[in-house]
Design brief:
The complex is a heterodimer. In chain A, about 35% of the residues lie in helices and about 20% in strands. In chain A, about 60% of the residues are buried. In chain A, helix 9 packs across helix 12 (about 335-345) and helix 13 runs antiparallel to helix 14. Chain A is built from 16 helices and 18 strands. By secondary structure, chain A is an alpha+beta fold. Chain A has five domains: about 10-100, Uridine Diphospho-n-acetylenolpyruvylglucosamine Reductase, domain 2 (2-Layer Sandwich); about 110-225, Uridine Diphospho-n-acetylenolpyruvylglucosamine Reductase, domain 3; about 230-335, Alpha-Beta Plaits (2-Layer Sandwich); about 345-435, Alpha-Beta Plaits (2-Layer Sandwich), CATH 3.30.70.2740; about 440-495, no CATH class. Chain B has three domains: about 5-175, 2-Layer Sandwich (Uridine Diphospho-n-acetylenolpyruvylglucosamine Reductase, domain 3); about 180-260, Alpha-Beta Plaits; about 260-345, Alpha-Beta Plaits. Helices cover about 30% and strands about 25% of the residues of chain B. Chain B has helices spanning about 5-15, 65-75, 100-105, 115, 150-155, 190-200, 225-240, 250-260, 260-265, 285-290, 315-325, 340-345, 355-365, and strands at about 20-25, 40, 50, 55-60, 80, 125-130, 135-140, 165-170, 175, 180-185, 210, 215-225, 245, 270-275, 295-300, 305-310, 330-335. The longest helix of chain B has 15 residues, at about 225-240. Chain B is globular, with a radius of gyration of 21 Å. The chains are: A alpha+beta, B alpha+beta. At the A-B interface, strand 9, helix 7, helix 8, helix 10 and helix 16 of A face strand 7, helix 5, strand 9, helix 7 and helix 13 of B.
């Protein structure tokens, strides 16, 4: 993974830069010691590590603005970071960049149940929002698997999903307002407790922009009332084709379950060995379907889904009879990643989305790629929305296996794009899929996105090296932001 | 009126560099400021390109009539959950003429918006031409995608100032099997507020909550499978009162009338606003706002979150002051209908960020301000 070569001027300015940050934020909120910066060297994509130039931990929007103004003045790059759980390297530090940690902005500012929303700071963990309103029967819907740790600010940056987003939407569908600080320190407020503010939807643009356009300092999220009841149905199938056909038939019958997950045989075995959820070990594919709502509706839909599953050859059909049993059915799925971690020294998690009807073909060709690259693969799949998570098993201690896993992963993602899908459904592009962007977008498409970046950050200082395979001067792209005849990067190499 | 039929014809028109006025069928041309430009209709980019109901995705030409999209979905038991308002009659046009591209370009959503999402939430991807005459695509044809910036969000509601769209991909969902309407009479505005808060804060999950202040009538809608709707109706009645229940076609008709804001269009107003407000506070000051404006009439939707406000014209500056004092800095006002002299002189949209930033974003797509120059703002 090639990152832009460090800017020598930034490295030399580091002491002066750190001193300016200390003066603005207080010495306790700035770290420049190599060893003390170690905890920030990677995010959830631990294959890549880099100690940053300086770490700053602002405590307020004003301090975020001050830190960005200082970085802007020094011409030093900035990488924003929430809880550091990104799986695509979105928060991977730069050797010549400030790591801006938002963890100290961790307060819930306002809970407004009459307007069904909460105003929170970006460092608040996703699940903490739901916990804060649980007694009143409310919750925040998007539930990425890392929700106990991942921060809401990071969720906004990555437009995080979760197993329930088929019915309840991604982060972008559950936001009402944002406060964002731009690279030059300007603070803007978008939306609020009302809907659809008119003119350009900057909140929609910022959501999922992976920290390249601005730093989120406040989030207003939509709260939902908890459904009265939720039940899960577990079914085994003799092939991924029949499981896929059952999924299509459920949606064809007009049913949108709260969650609909599929696992293949290697994933079933790994999860069952780990959690003992009672998964059918003889099945080639397993389906978990969750229905939620009023009890009468859940019972009605469970019986309709059972009939559909049976008519598609389901075996070992099981419906949760208690909340404990529902959670046990989910436990295997939710622990699928660590379960696979037990059967392999390392694994590499991919995140493509495909048109659901192409699943059997994609799994078939993935098996051929598995043989070609000499690495095993286990699949978990958000079957309702076509989001595939192949887990490539490898051993980083064996020379060349990480590279093989990366090559295998790239082949899988290219396959997803080839059948009409995309590189990433919920984990983000980050550094991980950056160099594959051109399989999905041509130069004109990518340059259009880069010009949007230029509108917010003409100097390319905010999280550069992420998402886009090449850096361009904004002037090259036709959006002229050349100040005083100087370009922000005198000689930008491709990387 | 130029009528490009292919992308390359559209590119040639854009590259001429002349200011253009983009439209579909032009049903909402009266929305926005009065501006100059050679008219270009994208209505020839019409037809269903790809639709597999089980994938919950539909790709259509941007100029496809919404009615054609809705018919195809209905045949497969699906629908557009954001049920766009038909604003044709606001501008003296018949119903059922608008195109899907026009709906997306104005991010037009109806009563289900707070419960199901806005047009922008169902807009997955597009193809089109930017102001430099380059063919651009963004987003994708699958429902779950975070690859690159979410440009469809930015294009939705941009009123054709960023991209001339030729193709749009939408998320579609199963249509509800059953629908009922519950109507309550003689509900004062403070009580309406309380009932909205109670119903929307419950697990009953209404998919419509509207109020007509002058008639003191409150409307709820419940949708879903038969047993679910019957159960939730009982729960809703226990919470807000017995009221009158309409089912099936009668329920759909009453919500169709609410969706198309018939109430505030009879008699036809001179000015029409859409106010977006925090829903729990909509009642505070609304009646006194209506008293301040001549011939004022309001229709409340989105459980209090949207107020359609119609009035006749006397003192425009006083009307704006009254509306701002009602909003108290929380919310947003858009002027949908006004006489041309006002649409030349005044801002019809209120930008939430400095116009300089919006200009930079605009320039990223259309540096020569070729598309709909001045429609959103004199400097945009």
């Amino acid at each position: 993974m090639l990152m832009p070569p460090p800017d020598r001027a930034a490295l030399e300015a580091a002491p002066e830069f750190a001193a300016a940050l200390r003066a603005a934020l207080g010495a306790d909120n700035v770290i420049a010691d190599q060893r003390a910066m170690r905890p920030y060297e990677s995010d959830g994509l631990t294959a890549y590590r880099q100690v940053p130039l300086v770490v700053a931990l602002p405590r307020s929007t004003a301090e975020v603005s001050a830190a960005l103004k200082i970085a802007h003045r020094f011409g030093i790059k900035v990488v924003p970071r929430g809880a550091g759980t990104s799986l695509s390297g979105g928060a991977l530090p730069l050797a010549d960049g400030l790591l801006l940690g938002l963890g100290k902005l961790n307060r819930i500012l306002d809970i407004d149940l009459a307007n069904r929303c909460a105003v929170v700071q970006p460092g608040v963990p996703n699940l903490a929002i739901s916990h804060a309103v649980a007694n009143e029967g409310f919750y925040y819907a998007p539930d990425p698997s890392s929700q106990i740790a991942c921060s809401i600010g990071g969720n906004v940056a990555e437009n995080s999903g979760g197993v329930h987003c088929l019915k309840y939407g991604l982060t972008t569908n559950n936001l009402l307002g944002l406060e964002v600080v731009l690279m030059d320190g300007e603070i803007i407020r978008l939306g609020g407790k009302h809907l659809d503010s008119g003119l350009y939807d900057l909140m929609g643009l910022f959501t999922g922009s992976e920290g390249l356009l601005g730093v989120v300092t406040e989030v207003t999220v939509k709260l939902l009332k908890k459904p009265e009841k939720a039940r899960a149905l577990l079914a085994g199938f003799a092939s991924s084709e029949s499981a896929g056909a059952a999924v299509a038939a459920i949606i064809g019958a007009g049913i949108i379950p709260a969650g609909m997950e599929m696992m293949d045989k290697p994933a079933i075995h790994a999860a069952e060995d780990f959690v003992h959820a009672g998964y059918p070990l003889d099945a080639e594919a397993l389906l978990i379907v969750e229905l939620d709502g009023p009890e009468v509706e859940v019972d009605d839909l469970i019986s309709r889904v059972s009939t559909i599953a049976t008519s598609h050859g389901a075996t070992g059909l099981r419906v949760s009879q208690s909340e404990e049993e529902r959670l046990l059915i989910w436990a295997g799925r939710k622990a699928a990643f660590p379960a696979v971690g037990r059967i392999s020294p390392d694994y590499y998690c991919m995140d493509g989305t495909i048109p659901r009807s192409r699943l059997p073909e994609v799994l078939h060709r993935m098996n051929a790629l598995s043989v070609l690259h000499g690495l095993r693969v286990a699949n978990v799949f958000h079957a309702g929305d076509g989001n595939l998570h192949p887990l490539i098993l490898y051993d980083a201690n064996k020379p060349g296996e990480l590279e093989s896993a990366e090559a295998f992963g790239a082949d899988i993602l290219k396959l997803c794009v080839e059948v009409g899908g995309v590189l990433t459904g919920e984990h983000g592009v980050g550094v991980e899929k950056r160099d594959l962007m051109s399989t999905m977008f041509n130069d004109a498409d990518l340059n259009q996105q880069l010009r949007v970046k230029c509108a917010f950050d003409a100097g390319n200082l905010l999280n550069p090296g992420k998402v886009f395979p090449t850096l361009h001067r904004c002037a090259e792209l036709g959006a002229m932001h050349v100040r005083g005849g100087k370009l922000p990067y005198p000689d930008l190499p491709r990387f | 009126m130029l009528l490009p039929e292919t992308e390359s014809q559209l590119i040639d028109i854009v590259k001429s560099g002349e200011p253009l006025a983009l439209c579909g069928h032009g049903t909402k041309s009266g929305w926005g400021r009065v501006f100059e430009g050679k008219p270009v209709s994208l209505k020839k980019f019409s037809g269903i390109i790809d639709y597999t109901p089980a994938e919950l995705v539909m790709t259509v030409g941007a100029g496809t009539p919404l009615s054609q999209v809705e018919r195809a979905l209905e045949d497969a038991g699906q629908h557009l959950a954001f049920e766009p308002v038909d604003l044709g009659p606001v501008y003296g046009r018949p119903l059922d003429e608008q195109t899907i591209g026009g709906v997306i370009a104005t991010n037009l959503s109806g009563p289900r918006r707070p419960f199901a999402g806005a047009a922008r939430d169902f807009f997955l991807g597009f193809k089109g031409v930017n102001g430099s005459g380059e063919a651009i695509k963004a987003g994708a044809k699958v429902v779950k995608n975070v690859t690159g910036y979410d440009l469809p969000k930015l294009i939705a509601g941009s009123f054709g100032t960023l991209i001339a769209m030729t193709e749009v991909t939408l998320k579609v969902v199963p249509a509800p099997e059953a629908s009922v309407a519950l109507i309550l009479e003689s509900v004062e505005i403070s009580k309406a507020t309380r009932l909205f808060i109670a119903a929307l804060g419950s697990s009953i999950e209404p998919t419509g909550a509207a109020y007509l202040p002058d008639q003191q009538r409150l409307f709820f809608r419940l949708e879903g499978s038969g047993p679910s709707v019957a159960y939730r109706l009982k729960a809703l009645q226990a919470l807000v009162g017995e009221g009158e229940v309409l089912e099936g076609a009668a329920a759909r008709q009453i919500w169709q009338n609410l969706r198309n804001i018939n109430h505030v269009l009879t008699p036809k107003p001179t000015l029409l606003w859409s106010l977006s407000v925090p829903s729990a506070g909509f009642g505070e000051g609304l009646m006194s706002l209506l008293d301040k404006l001549d011939g004022a009439k309001a229709q409340v939707d989105w459980g209090g979150g949207r107020v359609w406000l119609a009035h006749s014209l006397t003192d425009f500056a006083a009307a704006v002051r009254a509306i701002h004092s009602y909003l108290k800095g929380h919310g947003h006002a858009t002027l949908l209908l006004a006489p041309d002299d006002l649409r030349r002189a005044e801002n019809v949209f209120a930008p939430e960020v400095p116009i300089a930033l919006l200009r930079k974003i605009r320039a990223a797509f259309d540096p020569g301000l070729v598309f709909n120059r001045g429609r959103l703002h004199p400097d945009l």
